[in-house]
UniProtKB/TrEMBL annotation:
Protein name (database record): Ubiquinone biosynthesis accessory factor UbiK
Biased composition (Low complexity): 83-103
Organism the protein comes from: Rouxiella silvae
Chain segments carrying region Disordered: 83-110
Family, as annotated: Belongs to the UbiK family.
Reported function: Required for efficient ubiquinone (coenzyme Q) biosynthesis. UbiK is probably an accessory factor of Ubi enzymes and facilitates ubiquinone biosynthesis by acting as an assembly factor, a targeting factor, or both.
UniProt key word Lipid biosynthesis: no
HAMAP family: UbiK
Organism placement in taxonomy: Bacteria, Pseudomonadati, Pseudomonadota, Gammaproteobacteria, Enterobacterales
Recorded GO CC terms: cytosol
Cellular location(s): Cytoplasm
């Protein structure tokens, strides 16, 4: 919620900006302006500056963590892709270098 001092300051500024004839109504007018401002600001979804600054810092930390996690994920995916391509290359190489079919012994020699 907005600070009541700010509302009073705005109410005073509005009161001072009014023509002299209206200002002569004095405190009643200022009170009414203050009430209207409080009601209108109460309907709005406002936060004070301190809350805004805290949430800004939380958002910045969250973005930093997200960036780090994205980098870690990219590294893991890269390692996984490298690991998956290495066995395929190794098995292709072993098939190419394996000797042609060697005779199989059906019976063990005595």
């Amino acid at each position: 919620m907005i600070d009541t001092k700010k509302i009073e300051q705005i109410a005073r500024q509005v009161h001072e900006a009014m023509p002299k004839g209206i200002r002569e109504f004095g405190e009643d007018t200022e009170k009414k302006v203050r009430q209207v401002l409080q009601a209108q600001f109460g309907r709005m979804d406002l936060v004070n500056r301190e809350e805004f600054d805290v949430q800004t810092q939380v958002l910045l930390r969250t973005r930093e963590k997200l960036t780090l996690l994205e980098q870690r994920l990219a590294d893991i995916e890269s390692k996984l892709a490298t690991a998956n391509s290495a066995p395929a290359a190794a098995s292709a190489a072993s098939v190419a270098t394996a000797p042609a079919s060697a005779p199989k012994a059906d019976k063990p020699q005595e």
